[in-house]
Automatic annotation (TrEMBL):
Residues 184-205 are annotated as: Disordered. This is Huntingtin interacting protein 1 related.
Length: 205
C-alpha cells in the first residue's frame, strides 16, 4: 500500500506539473502569437515606411533634377542679363556721345548761321560797293567822252577837280541817275565847301 500511494501521489504530482506546463505553454503560445502579430504589424508599417521613403526619394530625385535644370536656366538668364546690361551701358554711352555730338553740331550750325548772316551782310555791302563802283566807272567813261558841241563842258571834263566832285556826288547820292557828261554835280549831295572849288574852276575857265 505505501508503494501504491507513493506512485499515485507521484502520478498526481506529475499530472499537476503537466497541467501547469500546458497552461504555461498556452500562455507562451498566446504571447508568441501576440508577438508575431505585433511583429507582422511592425513589418507592414516598416514596409509602408519603406515605400513612402522610396516615393520620397524618387520625388527628391525629380526635385533635384528640376532644381538643377532651373539653376542652369538661372545661370543662363543671369549671363544674358549681364550681357544685356553691358549692351545697355554701351548704348547709354553711345547715346550720351550722340547727344554731345548733336549739341556740338547745333552749336556749329548756329555758328555757321551767324557766319552766313555775316556773309550775307558783307555780300550785300559788296554788291552795293560794286554797284557804286560800276556807277562811278560808267560816270568816268561818260565823262571821258569828248564833247565837241560844248567846249565849256569839255573844259570841265579836263579839270580833275570837277571829275573828283562828280564822283563824290555820285557816291554820296547813289539813288540819283548818272550825271550827264559836262553837267554840274548836284549841290544837294555835295558839302558847300566842296562846291566852292568847282565854281571857282568854272569862273577860271
Amino acid at each position: 500500500l505505501p508503494v501504491k500511494d507513493l506512485s499515485s501521489s507521484t502520478v498526481q504530482r506529475q499530472r499537476r506539473e503537466l497541467q501547469l506546463l500546458m497552461v504555461e505553454l498556452k500562455d507562451r503560445e498566446v504571447e508568441l502569437n501576440t508577438m508575431a502579430a505585433s511583429q507582422d504589424q511592425q513589418h507592414q508599417a516598416w514596409e509602408q515606411d519603406r515605400q513612402r521613403a522610396l516615393v520620397l526619394e524618387q520625388r527628391c530625385a525629380r526635385l533635384d533634377e528640376e532644381l538643377r535644370k532651373r539653376n542652369e536656366v538661372m545661370r543662363a538668364v543671369t549671363k544674358h542679363v549681364c550681357v544685356v546690361e553691358s549692351r545697355e551701358r554701351e548704348v547709354q554711352m553711345k547715346l550720351s556721345k550722340a547727344k554731345q555730338k548733336l549739341c556740338e553740331l547745333e552749336e556749329k550750325q548756329e555758328h555757321i548761321i551767324g557766319k552766313c548772316r555775316d556773309y550775307e551782310g558783307s555780300d550785300h555791302l559788296s554788291r552795293c560797293s560794286l554797284q557804286h563802283l560800276l556807277g562811278g566807272s560808267r560816270l568816268l567813261k561818260r565823262l571821258s567822252l569828248p564833247n565837241r558841241t560844248d567846249p565849256v563842258s569839255s573844259c570841265r571834263i579836263a579839270d580833275p577837280l570837277y571829275v573828283h566832285e562828280c564822283l563824290r556826288a555820285h557816291h554820296l547820292c547813289p539813288n540819283t541817275s548818272l550825271l550827264k557828261a559836262g553837267a554840274d554835280p548836284p549841290t544837294s549831295c555835295l558839302h558847300p565847301s566842296a562846291t566852292q572849288p568847282a565854281s571857282q574852276a568854272d569862273d577860271a575857265l
